[in-house]
Amino acid sequence: MSRIASEAAFLGLIDRHFPRRHGAVPLHRGDDAAVLDLPGRICLTADLFLEDAHFRRAYFTPGDIGYKALAVNLSDLAAMGASPLGFALVLTTPSDADADFWDGVFAGMAELADALDLPLVGGDLNRGPSVALAVTAWGGPGPSGRFLRRGQGRPGDALFLVGEVGLAAVGLAVLEASGRDAVAAWPVATTAHLRPAVRVEAGLALAAVPGLRGAMDVSDGLAADLPRFLAPGVGADIRLDPSWLHPEVVAHAASRGLDPAEAAFSGGEDYALLGAVAPEALPDLLRAVPSARVIGAVTAAPGIILNGRPVTGRGFDHFESSPCSS
Amino acid sequence: MSRIASEAAFLGLIDRHFPRRHGAVPLHRGDDAAVLDLPGRICLTADLFLEDAHFRRAYFTPGDIGYKALAVNLSDLAAMGASPLGFALVLTTPSDADADFWDGVFAGMAELADALDLPLVGGDLNRGPSVALAVTAWGGPGPSGRFLRRGQGRPGDALFLVGEVGLAAVGLAVLEASGRDAVAAWPVATTAHLRPAVRVEAGLALAAVPGLRGAMDVSDGLAADLPRFLAPGVGADIRLDPSWLHPEVVAHAASRGLDPAEAAFSGGEDYALLGAVAPEALPDLLRAVPSARVIGAVTAAPGIILNGRPVTGRGFDHFESSPCSS
Prior knowledge:
The structure is a homodimer of 326-residue chains.
Chain A: H1 7-17, E1 34-37, E2 41-50, H2 62-79, E3 82-93, H3 99-115, E4 120-127, E5 132-141, E6 158-162, H4 167-178, H5 182-185, H6 187-194, H7 200-207, E7 212-218, H8 222-229, E8 235-238, H9 247-256, H10 260-266, E9 272-277, H11 282-288, E10 293-299, E11 303-306, E12 309-310
Parallel strand pairs in A: 3-4, 8-11
Antiparallel strand pairs in A: 2-5, 3-5, 6-9, 6-10, 7-9, 8-10, 11-12
Helix pairs in contact in A: 1-3, 2-3, 2-7, 4-6, 9-10
């Protein structure tokens, strides 16, 4: 174990993973604030990634932690149809997190940042009671010039998903039960929880479809997020066919005696994109994003129907009960 | 005690203090990301304000906590000569922080935000082991069109301060020793620690002085921050006359048998602005910011001289030892 001796040593570690040069950053980390060149209209999001609330060191590798802390923010930008431009990082480190641990965290984060050419422009380092990473990320509009938002679907619009649902929840359950050993038996589900895909390209393609009404990322599960996506007063009629669900979702539900569609509907943290599209624009959508799957339609009547039955419960509240404690 | 029951209740509390409308925020809190209209070049900073590292609930009122969490970020923008435009907030709350506590925190934060017309555009709420507030703030250039930075002073330039030094450190010491009772005996020093002034107007005025080379905010004390302010290879000759120091700094040093200038030189968290100005522009500086006080000059020789004696120690390292634990 090599304890991080000083702020300067920590900053040196960060410099090794995140170069301090980028064409759109006239003044990089190291001053009172960074100076950024941005388009005139941006979108911005901030999310915390907190030990024992959002992840456990027992089964996340350091690289997984760094990757996912950034990924959950980039997923919000993807859901806006935005092109990510940069991020800032505030972190706390407890005394048992050493230089090797943080080297791994930064490597996992840099892997994702480098793939998207994102500069880390600044932030703040502190000792604290647990490992916490608060990322603020921002992005500009893509070629379409617009951002996507919630609450725009009209009755008759098709509802669709880009990405799986229910898979990350299986990953969480098996990782909580068996730790890292679960990865071999449930490779896709555990990866969905540890390293969720970031759908930046899909988000940009969605924003370019003229009949696309809006989108969001499904972070807390369809059961919780669908009501947040719908405009007040409208509802949704959803059909999740077990044949569409990932085999690991179906197998896990079977092992628990659960309905796979209901399990998939409730499960959080897949970061699939949920969208609404005017029915006449469906062919455009499927041309632009071939992996999009229609799961139902916006209804004039409020309330949500899943596979023909009204849904009464609600999904997962990140604030009220953390995934790790559930 | 009214425990905060849900994320919705928490968001309602935030809505009561931070209205969701602002001319430069086309899409406010409540979607995956906020949409902001910004000037093409901005500066951005992020800082954590963490219980028992940066503040104690024993002697900070909730309002002080909310105020200072935002103030330390706005001070960074002030030091850049920037005009603040908005902020995002990530927080954690432990189970013993109730709705009344957070109502007070948001009231103190909104007081400062309202005075500067700053929208809170988004963020993230989580349960966590302690009270933590991570603020990301951004600003645009003032009428001068430029931002101020470090490392620009040349030999012969005058070094100056806007604001006191050593005062907040006295406040911290007496609050740690006597708790809130210290406020009556040391009103100015405790206020300097609990509610530091934010020098946005002074920063904008500095940026408008053509001969102004650069500025920073003194958060860790002159002893630590002066070397960060100076370009590599140059030094500084500083004179801190006890007659310039606040009477509470002089009285506290006397009570401890300390040299008041040395105490003032080491003390952190005053958030005074430190700047360098070309000697011929000194009259312009004093016209623009009458409260600026010249404390010395940049020297061609490296090293720092305080009141005729070389300084060998270094100041306070926020990462290595927190103020509350020192």
